[in-house]
Amino acid sequence: MTKVNQTTDEADAESELEEPTTDHLDNVEDGCGCTEIWEHMSEQREAAAGDD
């Protein structure tokens, strides 16, 4: 088995990665499924399209 060692630069680069934003899911209930998330995001898009 080959052991892979990270260099300090690689470890620093990984630690600098930002967490993905989830603010677009703030109004979705915890534990909901893919369908509910899709519906919520579709409603947001429709509402934003109506603002034009």
Describe the fold and architecture:
- There is one protein chain.
- With 52 residues, the protein is mainly α.
- The model has no long low-confidence stretch (mean pLDDT 79).
- The chain has helices spanning 8-15, 34-50.
Total number of strands = 0
User: What do the pLDDT scores average to?
Assistant: 79
How much helix is in the residues? 40-55%
Low-pLDDT runs of 5+ residues are: none
Q: What is the CA-CA span between the terminal residues?
A: 59 Å
List the secondary-structure elements in sequence, H or E. Answer: HH
The helix count comes to 2
**Percent of residues in β-strands:** under 5%
Q: How would the global form be characterised?
A: elongated
How is the biggest beta sheet arranged?
Answer: none
Give the class from helix and strand content and strand pairing: mainly alpha
Question: Taking Cα atoms only, what radius of gyration do you get, to the nearest Å?
Answer: 19 Å
Concise structural overview:
With 52 residues, this protein is an all-alpha fold. It is 48% helix and 0% strand.
List keywords for this structure.
52 residues, mainly alpha, single chain, 2 helices, 0% strand, elongated
List the helices and strands and how they pair.
Blueprint: H1 8-15, H2 34-50
